[in-house]
Amino acid sequence: MRFIHTFIYYLSLQIGIMLFTFVLFHIIPTDPARIILGPYADETQVESARKELGLDKPLLVQFADYLYGVSRFDFGKSYTDNRPVYQEVCAKFKLSLFLVFLSLLFVLLYCFVVIAGDRRINSLLKLLNFFFVSMPTFFSGTIIAVLVFLYYPFTAFSGELESMYDYLYMVPPAFVLALYPMAILARILSQQIESISESPYIKYVRVNGLSEWQIRFRHILKNAMIPFLAAFSNQLPMLFTGAFIVEIIFSIPAIGSLLVTSILQKDFPMLQGIVIVNGVFFILINFVFEILYPLIDPRINSANASK
Amino acid sequence: MRPNRHITNGILFLAVLFAFTFLTPMLSSQNPLDIQLKQNFQNPSVEHPFGTDELGRDVFTRVLYGFSTTIRVSILALCASFVIGITLGSIAGFFYGSLIDMTFNWHVSLIFCLPFLLLMASIMSILTPNIVNAYIVLACVMWVGPARIARAEVIRTRMLEHVLASRAMGNPEWRILFRDIMPATLESSFIFALSYFPEIIGLEAGLSFLGLGVQPPDPGLGKMIFDGLNYIYSAWWLAFCPAMVLFVIILLTNLFIGYRGKRAYGF
To answer: Quick check: A142 and B240 CB within 8 A?
Structure first.
């Protein structure tokens, strides 16, 4: 029952995103037909282009057409060069996704150090965290871009993930991207671990003679998981915001660069496609997390049931 | 009410920063728009502390002007988003569980579903890109953070005894909300809003980076970084200096307000 309720809620958010993009890009003061044909086209040409795009129909019919198209993964064509939007956005989104995935590996590694590290390492990491949190992507990005240019051997990027070199090229940008979320998440994790270590059940486990390793990874981590995952799902959109900027700094042709060019060219179907693909992705992620919480910590479900 | 250390610190810091933006243009005697093609791409020196750019303009002066725009816009956006957020959030919390609350929650989750920069960029793309619109869009999106906290605080406060007493005295509902409930929620939502300040600065710079903030030839920190990336291997100071200024601002902000307050309140 709860599952269905959550599902309907997220479905409504999905429709909300569609409605948002539709309203946003259909109240634009400029005429799309004009953008396609340029300023020198005459009125009859513009009129026929409008008919072709379906802009002469009433708004509700346009919205129905649009929903029908989106449900078949047809987001229209780019105004500038007639590329199908969906394929284009998906290809770029894959690249962004890979970058984010790679940076998540860095984040996980860092979190592992936080969990396994002793007090001295953790107090050092706290200082590091403070710097990483304060470091805008612009700053770390430009420094590492220069360092990569000077010292990193794999500076050739073909534009797609084809050979081993392309994968290796993505490592420094992923590291830049990882700095901010890993500091935030490590901070939350170490706070959680500190407070949970004080609790009686951990003392009991320790008295029973379990090794420090077992205590941390089996007993403390389980209770630290929910705040960590909540922060993680909050950080994910932020990670993508950072990814746009990192992609531009390292000239990776992914969503960030696509965003910049489509804003410059006023390519509204492309923008619409970017927003929808991102929206669908994040709503799915949030949905999965919402389902995961009670599975990880059964107390959440029982708390909801008793309300 | 005893003044809260984090709040007084925060307000003081923002006030000093805001006052500082009016002083910064005086630190340099040069014009940020003054083009001297003969002096382009000069290394940082005594005359030009941050070097000169591709048109021979003094980067130091441009950074100072960009800094003051960024800070002014960010502080104004912070105040606006705080006011909008706390009003909407408390109204939603006051009518907890009703249709108003559900609509509020739905909208907040919708805004949180997209990366902020993407959301702002898509709204900005249909508007004329300039700094006023950037400010409006920032305020219209960033209210969700304080609003969530304000809602949670109101839900917690509205069942307390002093609220019940006020209701028993026959005060009208709006008076109960604005006089009895809201003051109790101000503290934590303000701390939370303050901790958002570095993020607002980053987003303002991000908008400018995407070409949606300050329009050329006027200097904006993000735009300067974006343009400087073209010359990053030959003239590193073009992108590095504005980025470093951003880093210093955010570091100082975290040092004085965000980080400690946030930790004290456990956000």
So the answer is: yes
**Cis ω on the peptide bond leading into residue A84 (within 30° of 0)?**
no
Residue A299 falls inside a structural domain: yes
- Name the burial class of residue A163, with classes exposed (0-12), middle (13-18) and buried (19+) by CB atoms within 10 angstroms of its CB: exposed
Q: Which residues of A8-30 are buried (b: 16+ CB within 10 A; e: fewer)?
A: ebbeebbebbbebbbebbbeeee
A97 and A64 belong to one structural domain: no
Does B117 contact A283 at a Cβ distance shorter than 8 Å?
no
DSSP summary character for residue B2: P
Out of A32, A47, A71, a domain closes at A71
Inter-chain residue contact B211 with A263, CB threshold 8 Å: yes
Asked whether this complex has an ipTM greater than 0.90, the answer is no
Pick from A133, A145, A238: CB nearest B254:
A133
Instruction: Tell me the chain A residues in contact with residue B203 when contact means C-beta distances shorter than 8 Å.
Output: 241
Q: Which of A142, A249, A282 sits opposite B114 (nearest CB)?
A: A282
In a structure prediction context, what are the per-residue pLDDT tens digits for chain A, which is 307 residues long? 778 888 899 999 988 998 888 888 877 766 777 777 777 777 787 778 777 777 777 778 888 888 888 888 887 788 777 788 888 888 889 999 999 999 999 999 999 998 888 788 888 888 888 889 888 898 999 999 888 888 888 877 777 777 888 888 889 999 999 999 999 899 888 888 888 888 898 889 888 888 888 888 888 888 888 888 888 888 888 898 899 999 999 888 889 889 988 888 888 888 888 998 899 899 999 899 888 888 887 877 655 544 3
Give the domain extent around A208. 85-306
